[in-house]
Amino acid sequence: MRSKAARLPPREGPALLQGILVCGRCGRRMTVRYQRRRSDKVSLTYYCTYESKERAGLICQHVPGRGIDEAVSHMVVEALTPEAIDAAMAVYEELRRRSAEVAALYQSQVERARHEAELAERQFFLVDPGNRLVADNLEKRWNDKLRALATAEEALTKWREKNQFAVSSENREDILRLAQDFPAIWNHPQTTARDRKQMLRLMIQDVTLLRQDDIRISIRWKGGATSELHVPVPPNAIEARLTPKPVLDRIAALAEQHTDEQIAETLNREGLCSGTGLTFTREHVNRLRMDKQIPGYYDHLRRQGMVTCAEIMAKTGVSESTVRKWRRSGLLRAVRCDRKHWLYEYPDQEILSQHPKRRSPRRRIDN
Question: Which end of the chain has fewer CB atoms < 10 Å from its terminal CB, N or C?
Answer without folding.
Answer: N
